Amino acid sequence: MKRFLLVVVVISLLIPALMSQVTYLNDDEYKKLSKNERNAYWQELEAEMENLHQRKADAIAKNQADQKRIEELNAELQNLKREYAETRSRIMATLGLSEADMAAIKQKIDYFNSTVSQWNNMSDKQIWEYKKSIRELISEYKDYRNS
C-alpha cells in the first residue's frame, strides 16, 4: 500500500510540474489531506511558484530586450525621417515646388482618382450615358499632365 501511495504521490507531482498547472485546494479539501498528501501538495505549490518566478524573470528579460530594440528602432526611424525630409526638400527644390504646390497636386490627383473610382461602380449603360463627362475628364487630365 505504501508503494502504491508513493507512486501516486510521485505521479501527482510529476504531471502538474510537466503541465505547469496546479490544482488549488480550498480549506475543506486541504483539511481532508493526509500528512504525506499535504507535503506533496506543498511541494507541488513550491514547484509551481518556482516555475512562475522563472517565467516572470524570463518575461522581464524579454521585455527589457524588446524595449531596447524598440529604442534602437525609434532612433533608426528618426534618422530615416530626417533623411526623408532632406531628400524630399532637395527634390522639391529641384522641381521648384512649394508645399502648397504639392498639396494642390495631391488634391488634383485625389480628384481624378475619386472620379474614376465612382465610374468603376457604374454599369456599362451608365458609363455610356456619362461618356461626355468621361471624355472631358480625360481631356482635363491630359491638359493637367502637360502643364
Characterization of the model:
The chain has 147 residues and is an all-alpha fold. Helix 1 runs parallel beside helix 3. The mean pLDDT is 85.
Brief write-up:
This protein is mostly helical and about 150 residues long. About 85% of the residues lie in helices and about 0% in strands. The chain is built from six helices and no strands.
SSE string, helix = H, strand = E? HHHHHH
Distance between the termini: 98 Å
Classify the beta-strand content into a percent band: under 5%
H/I helix tally: 6
Mean pLDDT: 85
Sum up the overall morphology in one term. elongated
Judged by helices, strands and strand pairing, the structural class is mainly alpha
Overall helicity: over 70%
Tags for this model:
6 helices, mainly alpha, 0% strand, 147 residues
Helices and strands, with pairings:
Blueprint: H1 2-19, H2 27-31, H3 35-95, H4 99-120, H5 124-129, H6 131-146
Helix pairs in contact: 1-3
